[in-house]
Amino acid sequence: MNSPLCTRRRATGFTLVELMIATSISGILASIAYPSFSGVLQKVRRTEAMVAMLQLQQAQERWRSGSARYGTLAEVGVASAVPGRHYLLSVVDPSTTGHVAVAQAIEAQARDRARRYLLLGIESGNVSYRSGETEAATNDEQANRKCWNQ
Predict the structure, then answer these.
(1) SS3 state of residue 141
(2) pLDDT score of 147
(3) CA 17 to chain centre
(4) Residue 87 burial (CB < 10 Å; 0-12/13-18/19+)?
């Protein structure tokens, strides 16, 4: 006969060691996946800035069709921040023949050092795409093509 004192119940659940192993494995997998995820996230944000710059370019052409020169952000009616708030837009040197639209990465996006600045230039009907770590946008042609997906 089995008495209640002699029977042993089998414990259910996880031991502390099992929980520590599972947590360690999760941490290792997360540390491997995060760099890939952050790179994709930076590219999505950069694409958002490029779309905003192309919309700015369209607004500039509409403004130029009724004016003697290209306009400032306020004149063409474009906000100074990209909708996701990871880039700031500005227009440099609006003239009768062209302008340069600049998207400057801010906050977390500023970690994308090689593409911190995106420049879309129009001069006498010619379009130029540049990128770089500083406002001088000194990346080489291959890096610019990769950045602008050309």
Answers:
(1) helix
(2) 86
(3) 40
(4) buried
Predicted confidence at residue 5, as pLDDT, reads: 58
Q: Looking at beta carbons, which pairs linking 107-111 to residues 24 or more positions away fall under 8 Å?
A: 109/42, 109/45, 109/46, 111/38, 111/42
Average pLDDT for consecutive 10-residue bins of the chain (150 residues)?
60 86 92 84 91 94 93 94 93 93 93 91 91 91 83
Domain boundaries, the chain: 45-147
Q: Are 138 and 113 in contact (CB under 8 A)?
A: no
The Cα–Cα gap between 48 and 101 comes to: 14
- State the DSSP H helix or E strand holding residue 30, giving kind and residue range, or none if neither: helix 16-65
